[in-house]
């Protein structure tokens, strides 16, 4: 094992990008504190932004939608405005509570977001997609044979309508949005390359299926979801496509009952490709990559459940996750799919176990620091472990994150353990380490240009400096009915401040980050999952893996960046995972990245280059852009 030197890819430089294991537990286990983010450097990093010399103002989104402009003569949109943002070098200093309460509230009756201009095409962004990377060992790209065998799905499409609700403020916003759907649909995404045609067709279909439901436009009916899912699973270009049925795969009848119980009809591409490799005997390592929200969890869950001998009451499988939130979610999936078996599970996160009690559960799911503590305290025998799963494997192997802990755990396990590594991203340097961690593995990789999900419409919004970002966010939520959304920030303080201010403005908001107590974190995420809160303001702590189907918008309030050791470059992987919290398993979603100065603009450009995907610029001065944004959000709100 001496060759297991973790890769040193630089971490996203944000609070909570490390393991959220209890630092006290880690100190006990390692005798030293875990790496922490240097908050002073964090501030210095942002203030190191090169001053912007071109001072043409960008009128704020707020001024566009509220008519409360502080700029009496807005400058018309400039074609080069993406690189001529207004000066914003001052660091974000949250205004006092008094200042925030005296802030003029946007006019929420304004329906600028709510009106469509039928047939208007958006302007095209100028960033050129790079040449795709070399083909991986096993690709999830459809073969020509697969394309030819595509069955045509002919389910009927039903159209329903309901009467208009009483015109309260919220309902008026909803009615404005519903009007969009009744017009001939241009979803505004003609710039998105080959998928645009497909998306337009899908949108038209959505238009005819619009229910006009008054429940804030969330995924409005199961029938719609099933029809669209059947379409997607019959399209060889979709990551959800498969030729086979679950029944064709070597899955135990009790697990098949679990699959039916959770409502899965057909495997996704990653499930179809990975499961035969995973379940084959003798067990073999697997490194699997597939886009966010395409069903990797069920793939490794079916393998974990298949490899347990329920008669032996000792831990046999370990699943490592980067956060307690993801561990809890994964345990739930395992319990659901395994509900017709005798297999038991246990969470291994701070506060979930008792130090002197022997563990007799079959599958343990948790964060690495806790496992190290458990192994040190001999509460289970690591030599009985047969399968080690690393969910979000690139994160779990990252030396700047949890790589060292993961390697320590592996060293305690038997040499013939089956190593299963899954993620939506596997940067090159992590791939080398993954190869050494899981030797002779079967591999399923994506090209970099395939990593992002087509159904997520990626936008960026120009804001006027740091404070302009908050104004833009407030304006978005004031003006539009947005189902549920996640806002990602770099710092915990920013998350708390935004949550406070949005709450003062009457929105249903919570903030979640690593400084909160464990129980509180669980309650906050549960509240959001259950729809009690509509907006979750967070750090990278839930950037990966969290699966909440009704999330239809992700906001990158701060562009994710690597730390000082990464020369402050944009963190492309974290961006991909963050936006992947929407657009789950074929659903539509929208991501908006806030750009407030020259530096954040070039970070966005770098992300576009790396992913080969353009983000559509939303110029807040441009009525047409705002209307396109409104349409995108409406379509995302429909879900599918
Ligand atoms: N075969 C299937 N049929 C229908 N739904 C499925 C299927 N497989 C998974 N799902 C659903 O798709 C959603 C996304 O799955 P999952 O969370 O496993 O994605 P993932 O690939 O692990 O994403 P991420 O990269 O973000 O971790 C979940 O709600 C899951 O229940």
Automatic annotation (TrEMBL):
Q: Does the keyword Nucleotide-binding apply?
A: yes
| Ranges where the Helicase C-terminal domain occurs | 455-640
What's the EC number here?
3.6.4.13
- For this chain the motif Q motif maps to 244-272
Q: Report the residue ranges that make up the Helicase ATP-binding domain in this protein.
A: 277-444
- Using the record, list the residue span of the signal peptide; answer none if the entry has no such feature: none
Using the record's annotation, list all stretches that form the DEAD-box RNA helicase Q domain.
244-272
Q: In the UniProt record, does the keyword Hydrolase occur?
A: yes
In what ranges is there compositional bias, type Low complexity?
A: 78-104, 125-144
Top-level EC class: hydrolase
Here the segments flagged for biased composition (Acidic residues) are: 15-24
A GO term, aspect molecular function: ATP binding
Q: What PANTHER family does the record point to?
A: ATP-DEPENDENT RNA HELICASE DBP3
Protein name (record):
RNA helicase
Which species is listed as the source? Naematelia encephala
